[in-house]
Amino acid sequence: MQQQMRAAGEATTVAAPNSKLAPTMVTALLACGVAATVGYIAMDVAATLRYGGYSYVSQTISELSAVGAPTRPMWLAGSIIYELLVIAFGSAVVLVAGNRRGLRIAGALLVVMALVGIAWPFAPMHQRDVLAAGGGTLTDTMHLVLAGVDVVLTMLIIGFGAGAFGARFRVYSFVTIAATLVFGAWTGIDAPRVSDNATTPGIGIAERITVYGFMTWFAVLAIVLILEAGRTHAATTSVAGIAPGRTPQTEPR
Q1: Could you report the per-residue pLDDT of 52-62, keeping only the tens digit for each?
Q2: What are phi and psi of 67, to 5 degrees?
Q3: Domains of the chain: which residue ranges?
Q4: For residue 245, what are the CA distances in angstroms to 25, 136, 174?
């Protein structure tokens, strides 16, 4: 019994020592990480299908929200939902991090990244033909700056979160970082050709491997934390003599 109590205490310390939210609420907030990833990818695919003449393979994601793009209103609405989901997810990560400082920092940086993302609608790029004709404005420069900030925040989030679990998760995290850097570099090298309205074969695939890759890491982190929270709750209620899903009963006097 003492060993059980000690194990439950340790689990509680790791999972959510200061959280006063119900386990179901914590799970719902963590699930926002999965919803954000699935929602973003679905939005990207839907916008691609709706934008006549757009190439999923050879055009960037940003062109779906460019000034004058027919999918810009749809993308802006979807991006607001995405950022809100990431804020909820990041907040939940902070709540369940417990004594894992790196994970707590990763959660806080997720919230920061989402707050920075709110600025994206105010920093759109222009379409290729406009840029090639010299019609670029300050918003195009801001767009590139925000993209750079996103890359840095993403690397920090994955880097701080990598050590929260076992060796396999750490290896997976480093592979994700490597893929993000490699395919992100490919996208960056081809970026000037977008401004010149030149052909950019494969840039859409390279960018999507980058973006989908780190977003999948967010979803995996969410799933791992949901499973951990479930085990912690089950262990705690078991030690207390309460069946999972039931509330303690007061004995009659």
Answers
A1: 999 999 999 99
A2: -60, 125
A3: 21-227
A4: 14, 58, 37
